Fold this sequence. Notes:
A hairpin with a 4-residue loop joins strand 4 (56-63) and strand 5 (68-77). Residues 1-22 have low confidence and may be disordered. This protein has one helix at 86-93; strands at residues 26-30, 37-43, 47-53, 56-63, 68-77, 81-82, 105-112, 114-115, 120-129, 132-141. Strands 1, 4, 5, 7, 8, 9 and 10 form a 7-stranded antiparallel β-sheet that branches. Strands 2-3-6 form a 3-stranded antiparallel β-sheet, covered by helices on one side. By secondary structure, it is mainly beta.
Amino acid sequence: xxxxxxxxxxxxxxxxxxxxxxxxxxxxxxxxxxxxxxxxxxxxxxxxxxxxxxxxxxxxxxxxxxxxxxxxxxxxxxxxxxxxxxxxxxxxxxxxxxxxxxxxxxxxxxxxxxxxxxxxxxxxxxxxxxxxxxxxxxxxxxxxxxxxxxxxx
Length: 153
């Protein structure tokens, strides 16, 4: 079986300007300009490779009254992988790793999250990559000063 690159997703600060509290959880979109999806992997036992995905988007629900985070979804374009070395990036996009031609996206979904601090959460869910789902826990931070509700869809 081929080795699959399972990135450690680090989701740094996320979000946009505050909306009034409601009785139910409001839907928010993560600002792609403030979303970082990065990985650090061991390369043949002698070096670590730091990389990122340059194209990702996401959404979630947040209940301001209860500070509950739910319905998290993050989509990452696999062809946007970047490790600062073109030959390696091309290899990562190929069939040995991400197979971007056949699987253009990897998707993380989670029903809920555990609050770990005043504005931080651990989100345990599933990462679907190469058509297979794997458990994954992400760290997530919300800057409550900058929340924008997503447009109604």
